[in-house]
Every structure is written in C-alpha cells, then in structure tokens.
Design a protein that fits this description.
The protein is an alpha+beta fold and about 375 residues long. It folds into two domains: about 190 residues, ph1033 like fold (Roll), CATH 3.10.590.10; about 170 residues, Trna Endonuclease, Chain: A, domain 1 (3-Layer(aba) Sandwich). It has eleven helices and 17 strands.
C-alpha cells in the first residue's frame, strides 16, 4: 500500500479532522489534470500522513473511500478553510498520536545512511510539488517510526462514536473532542477522461497528464494494464510523478509488484503521447540508476523499465507535424534499447504501444529483438 502525505495549513487542518477528508487543489482553478492523477492514485486502506505547514507531521490515518470531485461553487467548506480543494477523498483515523514530529526531526536531521533519508519529501520541499505526495515503503516505515518513537512513547489516541481530533491552536497537539461532522458536500465521481484524451490525440496535442491519470485510476483494476503495471493482487505500491533527483526528472508511473512481498519487481513506466525515439534510453538510464541507488531492495535483476508510447500512424509525428519513417524510427529505437539492455543495468526494457479505437485505448507489446 502507498502512503500519501497531504499538505495542510493551520486554517484547513481542523476541518480535515472534523469532517474526515483530505484534499488537494490548485489555487482558484476548477480543474487540474495533474492533481486528478494524484488523487486517483489512492486506494481504500492506504495510509495517510498529514504535514501541517511550518509545524510537522501527524499520523496515521487511512483512505476510507473513493476519491471524488467537489464541483460546488464555492467548494464545500472553502469559505472557512480559505482553500479551494477540488479533489478530495474520505479518510478515517488509524493510529493517531497526539503530538507531531517536526520537519527538522523528520527531514533535516540526517540519519546514518543515505537510504534512510525521506527523499520524496525532500524533493517535494525543494521543488514546491503538489499537495498529495506518495512516499516509498521504506520512507513510510521510517516516518511512522519517527512519529511513534520521537514523542516519548505516548500512546495513540482512540475515538468513540461522535468524537473527532481537535487541533489545539497554541500547542498544535491533537485532542479528542465531541461533535464530529458528517461530510455533506457534493461528491461527484472521478470522471472518465478518455474522450478528452482521444480528442487531444486527434488534434495532435499533448495529453500525457491525462494518460497518467488513466493509469492511476485503472492500475490493478483493468486487466489490460496488468502486463504493464502489475495485477491487483501483486501491486504493493503505486506512485506517479515520482521525483528521482534534485533536477526535474520524474518517473511517470512507478509500481512495486510482488507475489510474496519478498521477491519484488520495481516497474518504472515512462508514458509518451508520441512515438518512442532512441534517446528515450537517457531517461530510462537516469530512472534505473536512481532506483538502484535509493530504493531499498532494488537491483539490476529486479528493476523493470517500461516504455508506453503512441503507435505510429500515417507516417507523421502528430505533435510536430513532421513526416516520420515508421520503419526507420522503430528500428533506431529498437537498436537503442538493445544497446541499453547490453549494459545490464536492469531487466530487459519492455516496450508497449497504444492506439485509440471505438472510444477506447488498446495496448500492444513490441517485440524488438
């Protein structure tokens, strides 16, 4: 299960606690496909940790329902929270401690080993990334140990019927209080964006964010994605926009699959709304090297790079409008992948192409050697 860190402030956090939800938004925008991809990543029972800006980390909560879109104008509780959170998800308390762990304790005080640094949150802090961040299995374990152990072994709080956690505005301690409120805002299901993606494709416009949202919604749910990202019973971690360095590199989709939680495969999925091209191996190499260096248990024998690219049609690059020689580009890309595989940095690269037909998307694996 993926642990998700939601960023809140002193005005909004009390309402998340009282009304049992987490959310994310982009200032005053009514839609943001990247944030939609983020919220669609969550699954029921996934762990949730809140980061209260300028204070610290609180946990542990759980995802309690499907994500939804709040289309009210203004959005529910916006006037009192001071934030427009268009994408939201129900939560419930799980193992919640009264005190927080400060950002300094969790992120700035360096551990003995580099792999114990919570890099996902360091990168988020450096880049000002979006407010729903996935952290790795090892990072989640480390952060929860901080939360459980750094506060003097205080026991977790438990709630009775009708109670909720109140945030003390002076000590920032969580306390039990009566008067929990049901969530009464509009809860529209996450809309299918296939029509938009197909329209953008036909217009020769970019749509990788929509493709990413398609994957985060459907991984483990649609059998057609099993061969790419893993079937439901095997996926133990799902991330999107996974930062892999202090630069701008991000892995579009990252899944960890395992049948027994011991023999794991680390699937690094690069999504393209254009055809694959030879220099794509430069991205794959960066992703593979970072994963092997920073993700516990990842080695060349279990890191699986995957390309998902648009099938070439009509001999034209739909984004640039320039003519393409299908056979030449495919042969050059295949040659580059073969050379990359010879470096033995990872498992053999898998390459899938997709196309649109009858208002649906279909995937075919490319045999290139």
């Amino acid at each position: 299960m993926t642990t998700h860190v939601f960023i809140v402030n002193k005005e909004s956090f009390p309402f998340h606690l009282k009304y049992s939800f987490a959310g994310t938004g982009a200032a005053d925008k009514a839609e943001h496909i990247g944030l939609l991809a983020d919220i669609c990543r969550v699954r029921i029972d996934d762990p949730v940790i809140f980061y209260l800006e300028s204070v610290g980390f609180y946990g542990l909560f759980k995802i309690a329902g499907a994500p939804f879109i709040d289309t009210d104008v203004p959005t529910y509780l916006e006037s009192v929270m001071g934030k427009k959170l268009i994408y939201r998800v129900p939560i419930s308390p799980h193992t919640v401690y009264p005190l927080f762990v400060s950002e300094w304790e969790a992120l700035d005080r360096l551990p003995l080993y580099a792999k114990d640094v919570i890099w996902s949150l360091i990168y988020r802090k450096l880049k000002g990334n979006r407010g729903c961040t996935p952290i790795t299995l090892q990072e989640s374990d480390n952060l929860m140990k901080f939360i459980a152990n750094m506060r003097g072994q205080q026991p977790a709080l438990s709630l009775s019927e009708g109670e909720y956690f109140r945030l003390d505005p002076f000590t920032f301690k969580l306390e039990k209080s009566s008067g929990a409120q049901p969530y009464l805002g509009r809860m529209e299901s996450v809309a299918d964006k296939m029509a938009i993606m197909e329209a953008l494709d036909s217009q020769g416009r970019a749509y990788e964010d929509y493709l990413q949202a398609y994957f985060t919604v459907n991984i483990g749910r649609l059998p057609k994605l099993d061969s790419i990202a893993g079937r439901s019973s095997a996926v133990i971690w799902l991330g999107n926009e996974v930062s892999c360095g202090v630069g701008m590199q991000k892995i579009d989709i990252f899944t960890i699959t395992s049948d027994d939680r011991e023999n794991r495969t680390f699937n690094l999925i690069e999504l393209k709304c254009i055809s694959a091209y030879p220099s794509i191996i430069d991205q794959l190499r960066r992703y593979v090297l970072w994963t092997g260096s920073y993700i516990t248990g990842a080695i060349n024998a279990n890191i699986q790079p995957i390309i998902v690219s648009r099938k070439i049609e009509n001999g034209t690059n739909r984004i640039t409008g320039r003519p393409l020689k299908r056979k030449t580009l495919r042969d050059e890309t295949a040659g580059a992948l073969i050379e990359f595989n010879r470096e033995n940095l990872s498992k053999k690269v898998k390459w899938f192409e997709y196309y649109f037909q009858d208002h649906d998307i279909f995937f075919e694996e490319v045999s290139y050697e």
